[in-house]
Records
---
Amino acid sequence: MPCAGIRCAPERTRPPAAGAVNDLRHDSADVRPAAPRPRTMPHVPGESGIWIMIFGDMLVFSLMFIAFLLGRRDQTDLFAASRLHLNQTYGLVNTCLMLSSSWCVASAVLAVRSARPRAAGLYLRIALGCGLGFCAVKILEYGEKFRAGIAINSNDFFMYYFVFTGIHLLHVLIGMGVLIFMTRVAAGTVDAKRQGYLESGASFWHLVDLLWIALFALLYLLPSAVPP
């Protein structure tokens, strides 16, 4: 009932009960900053051993390329004239085959991760066919050189040419064996260990592709003239 003509005393707010204060303190103590999420390491495809081999192989080829460039610096005219005897069409066809095979191998690994073994097997067989095509073109190119009287002992340029491409061809043959193994692995049940095998094989094949791209640029496309 309102206070008519009488001054009403202001209402006093009751202090919170001791239990409520304790509850508030307890709740505020529980509010803590969220712990930072642990950083996830990026996935490195394949086994660690395959990467040691890949880096070692790249180091060896890098030294070979340096030796080639030094020889080219000392015998510029000889290397320029010898390069004209190379068939760039063969080199371009082999480059397309290697790039296509690498795409197929990468697609096969993705198909395995998404549980599509039939697609993975198809991609790997196409990559294997590209490898066979590469070998066939290289045999044609070697035959063309031999019929023209060009051999490994013709001059320094062709010594490098036959050694470099011969070693790379050996890598292609080894890689084709790896592709056959990958095809068999992809046809079965792929667990984490078998997926590591597939990724290791794919990494090696990509190395073979990368080496050929470097060889194609170095042997077939490098300008003949060296600026003074």
---
Amino acid sequence: MIQRLTLAWALGLLVLVSSCVSKKKYQAATTDAQNQKASNDSLRSALSALQSQLNDAISSNKMLTSERDRFQKESDSANAALKNYQGAVDEYMANMDDVEKKLKDKMADYADRGANVEYKNGMVYLTLDDKLLFRSGSSKISKDGETVLGTFASVVNEYPKMNVLVVGHTDDRAGRGGDNWSLSTDRANSVVRALKDNKLDPARFTSAGQGEYNPVADNSTAEGRAQNRRTEIILVPETFKLLNRQ
């Protein structure tokens, strides 16, 4: 009987020990599972954050690519326009050099009589003393003046894209009627009419008079006054068309 009790007690102890061991394993397994879940949740959160950053980077890259393409297109357009303008400027400069040379050659016979050709401010100037163009105190063109203007017209007719500005000037001594401004304007208009008679398109002309108000020399001397009594014929590029050339 004692043996039976001992056996029963041993079996009970074994069951109790087994139960304790199983509970500890369960608790340990439960703890591991919870830790694993927390770890997985953390990884999923990190993965979601990385995915969000990746999406932002992709979106930013697309925007930067679009901006780059836009800037490249604008740069290409600007370079094309610059090349076009440079071509227009080169053509213009070549024409101005050419017309200056031809005018100097044609006007060489009149150089010692008051005809001067020069390039300045992007334009070609033909300056003619009043004694070469007009009778004293008059706006009527002389025979020599007609010859000079005819020579000028023969050159300028080769350059139909150049406009012609004619500006009359006087000294500060009162002319007939006491109005030098009117005299300078009348002289400029007379030159324009003479050029029109030499088959130049009148649409190319602009005339103006500045009277005594743009002197190039001292009006207190006879020599200075003679220099101030002049007519400037200026060849002007078609600036608007040059800047808007397509």
---
Amino acid sequence: MEGAAPGVEGSARTVFFMSTGSNAVWAVVPLKSPEAAKSRLRVGLDDRARQRLMFAMARQVVRTLKQARGIAGVAVVTASAEIAAYVELEGAAVIRQERDAGTAEACRSAVAHLSASADSLLMISGDIPLICSDAVAALVDLSRRTPLVAIVPDRRRTGTNALLCAPPAVIPPCFGADSFQRHLAAARSRGVELRIVESDALSLDIDDLEDLDELRRRLDADPTLLPVKLREALPRKEEVPAQ
């Protein structure tokens, strides 16, 4: 497939994944269609600003995963042709869905596609602006301890920003409300090794205006945390209504 990641063949709708060697860790990024993504930001951002931010964060996540040590490939799960074309230009493979069906269903689709060729899956949110390759590599290192589940909670410790499953189907993806606790329960019920990974780089996902404020606070302390293109995509504080 033109523009696909190494080890991937096929069309945008049907991709075939080939093994890339021992301890192959694939990263999976579920992305909603632009019209549906970041809906909780609608109270403060117009559609153009919201979608611009979404695409900039998705690009940052995909590029960082591509550069991270130990990641054999990056697959984006999406129902959007626009997103599929966008991430293929960044070198990601695409698993197309018929419709947006939620993060859990997107990740279940990735498990079905990749279990035969990947030894581990790292399922990770596409809206983590502070992601860095060292944080990703630390999760990859854990993948050798199969069977294992590693969970990176969000900053509120209710959601799951990254889920490492070694092997890929060791537990079912439980993304959605209270996913952190549900992933904990799933791992404990299977009796596999469980790691909770606290990560400043991965714990901040941008779901609402409070998250944007927290990102600005961190950038005030260290402006180098974000690349220039992503900083430019952030709405200025004066453009967002006070809450």
